[in-house]
Amino acid sequence: MIRWMMHMPVNVRSRMIEYAKEALEVLEYPRGMDFSVVTPHDPPYTLDCSEEWLGSAIDKQIVPEVIVTHATEFATDRLQGRECHFSPFAQGCLDRNPIRKEFVMLQDPLRVFFPVSVTPLVMVFNPETVHGDELVHSWEDLLETHRSVLFPDRDKPLSRAAGAYLLKTYPDRFPDFERRVAYDGSPASVVKRVASGEYDMAMTNYSFASMVAGRRVAINKPKEGCILLPQVMVWKKGVEEDLIVLSDLMMQKKTQEYLMEQGIWPARSDIPPDETFSCSRQLDCWTGWDDYIEAVADFDAYQLPMGKASVAW
After folding, report:
1. CATH, range 2-118+228-275
2. Name one Pfam family in it (predicted).
C-alpha cells in the first residue's frame, strides 16, 4: 500500500484530496500499485486532532510514502535531518515541472523538498478598536502591549510559521508578546472574533482575511511582506523514484490555478499570481530551508521566562 499524505491549507484541503483521488484512479491500475490518500486527522496519525503529525508517524514507523504538507511539519525533533528520512527526488520533479522564477530561492540544496505553493500570512484588525493611523503597517503592530491579539491554535502550521518569524525577528519583545497572545481556534474563526470586537488584531492566511475584509475587519499589510508558509512535496526514503509522477498532479494547470484562486501562491511558472503577490517581499529575504525549519523548532520549544504561561484576554 502506497500512502499519500495530503496536508494542505484548510480552505483547499477537501478539493485537493478529491484531485488526488481522481488522479490515482487513472494511475494505480497501469502502474500495478495500490494507493491510499490519507490526512493528519486519519487514524493512526493523530488521536487528538493535532496538526502536528510527522513526529508521531516517525515514532510509529508509519511515515507515508508520498507527502504533501506544510514545511513547518519538518521542524519536529524526531527528524534528525530531512535527508535521513526522505529521498532526493526534487530535482527530477523540477526537471518535469519547473517552478516560477520568483520561487527559485525555495529550491532545496538537499533535493528533498519540492515546493508546490506558498500560503501568505497577514494581519487583520478591527477598525472600530484600532485606528488605521495608529498602525505602522509592520509585524511590529502585533507587539504593541495595549492591543489584544489572537492567533489560531499554537500547533496550527500558520501559527508556527508566524510565531517563528516573530521570535527570530523580535527576540527581545517576543516574551511579552507570548504572554499576551491567545492561541485559540482556526484561521477562519480568529477573523470572526476580531470582527466581533473580542480581539483587536489577529493573524491568518490572506484568503480568509480577504473574504471578510470590509465587514468590521481590515487587512494590515506589513511592509516586511507576508510571512511565508510553504507547502512542499517529499518522498519517503526507499520508495521508487517513479512515484515522482505524482508531482505532475500537484503542478498541473487545473490544480495550480485552483490554488491561486484560493489566495495561495502557485509554484507553476506560467500562472500569474494574484494581487496579494505584491506582498511577497519575504521571498527576497529567504535565508534557506535550514534557517526556516530551525526557527519553527525554536518557536515550538519556546518557554516563557520563569515558566509564565501565555494568557488570553
Report:
1. 3.40.190.10
2. SBP_bac_6
